[in-house]
UniProtKB/TrEMBL annotation:
Pfam families membership: NAD_binding_4
Gene3D superfamilies reported for this sequence: NAD(P)-binding Rossmann-like Domain (3.40.50.720)
Segments forming domain Thioester reductase (TE): 32-263
Molecular function GO labels: aldehyde dehydrogenase (NAD+) activity
Organism: Caballeronia mineralivorans PML1(12)
InterPro entries according to UniProt: FAR_NAD-bd, NAD(P)-bd_dom_sf, NAD(P)-dependent_oxidoreduct
Annotated protein name in UniProt: Epimerase
């Protein structure tokens, strides 16, 4: 069954524990993509803890199967699996390749034997890199085509992003499929995720598709930032500066990677689902910026001046305070990143998660309850070093 290392609400824990054994019985082979990434690696550990290693196949980019296995084991260990248990992974658990590759006949046969897919693979860059569109749309569609009209295939769970909704929604964003109207986006990444959702439904209407949209995924409730420091460095900057362009009462919809992975795993293996679109989010329980800063004050033992709103033009000075005036390149990168994240924060979105709560009893640990672990695991690590998780 799933192994839990953190205190969970009774409903969430009971939902996971009681349903696991029954659900895994109906899985012939589960294909996981993106298993060397932050979310995908944590899903990998979750599935292994569920006893699915014999039925698990991961698509891994590598020169050969041996290299793919090394990468897969390293990802599992980084995401919390003991090293000794990671050695249970073998070359039987890997298919070498990318989403858009031409697979060998042997690997095509292995894909054809899949009953379930969890597609975590994506290019998550906030840059204008043309590969964002190529990988997240074209290659994803090509990969999904391998599972069309197969009688034994039961579910293609596609991991999207809550911000695929764009910038023109009401404050509460509902869990529903997107229409075909044009929307504005802050970065190409979120547009690509919206586009591929629509195209998967348009091109492959018979695909048993379930779209899951995580909100802001930050840290691990036990491991803190060890699996990935993605985005947490932004909170460190804002906490140190005591200013940002969003109000103190602005809510930030943050979930931990392990709560996200548990939800993805259950939605993938549950025999029947009431809907085909879900948010993995904090929803109405999302903390405010003020609450997050207060929790970080408590975790660090350091409190500064009162938080205040600043103008985007002040981001340059904030960045220089972080890295010093000599590191102009890093300062420009921080300034640019703060501008992007400010754009998301100022939307003040709350991603409704009623469907997920009713479907699997989802009760995520609030960010302010595990931010201390993120702080603890960030001690002695520079902000610029942590930024590398987002700007590789």
């Amino acid at each position: 069954m799933f192994a839990w290392q953190t205190p969970l609400t009774t409903a969430w824990q009971d939902s996971l524990t009681s349903s696991t054994r029954m659900h895994v019985v109906g899985i012939d082979r589960l294909v996981l993509t993106g298993a060397t990434g932050f979310i995908g690696g944590t899903v990998l550990v979750t599935l292994m803890n569920a006893g699915l290693i014999e039925r698990l196949v991961c698509l891994v980019r590598a020169a050969n199967a041996a290299e793919a296995l090394v990468r897969l084991r390293a990802s599992a260990v980084r995401c919390g699996l003991p090293h000794t248990r990671s050695q249970r992974l073998t070359e039987a658990n890997v298919i070498v390749g990318d989403l858009g590759d031409d697979f060998t006949e042997a690997d095509l046969a292995r894909l054809a034997g899949a009953s379930h897919v969890i597609n975590c693979a994506a290019m998550t860059s906030f840059s204008t890199n043309p590969q964002v569109l190529a990988i997240n749309v074209r290659d994803t569609l090509r990969f999904a085509s391998h599972f069309i009209d197969r009688q034994t295939f039961k579910r293609f769970l596609h991991v999207s992003t809550a911000m695929a909704c764009g910038t023109q929604c009401s404050t509460v964003v509902r869990e529903s499929a997107f229409g075909f109207s044009e929307t504005n986006h802050l970065v190409p990444y979120t547009r690509s995720k919206r586009d591929v959702e629509r195209l998967l439904r348009l091109y492959y209407p018979t695909l048993p598709l379930v779209v899951v949209r995580p909100s802001i995924v930050v840290g691990h409730t036990v491991l803190g930032t060890l699996p990935s420091a993605s985005i947490f460095w932004v909170f460190r900057v804002v906490h140190g500066a005591r200013r940002f362009s969003a109000k103190a009462m602005t809510r930030l919809d943050v979930v931990s990677v392990d709560d996200c992975a548990r939800a993805l795993a259950l939605l993938a293996v549950k025999p029947t689902l009431a809907f085909d679109t879900y948010h993995v989010s904090a929803g109405s329980e999302a903390p405010t910026i003020g609450q997050i800063i207060g929790a970080m004050d408590e975790a660090t033992g350091i409190s500064g001046k009162r938080y205040s709103i600043c103008a985007p033009r002040d981001f340059r000075n904030i960045a220089r305070d972080v890295v010093g005036r000599r590191s102009s390149g890093a300062a420009r990168l921080i300034e640019h990143a703060l501008g992007l994240y400010a754009g998301f924060a100022n939307l003040d979105y709350q991603f409704d998660n009623h469907r997920l709560r009713e479907e699997i009893g989802f009760e995520p640990l609030p960010f302010i309850d595990y931010v201390s672990e993120c702080v603890r695991t960030s001690r002695g690590i520079g902000i610029v070093e942590q930024m590398r998780w987002d700007f590789k």
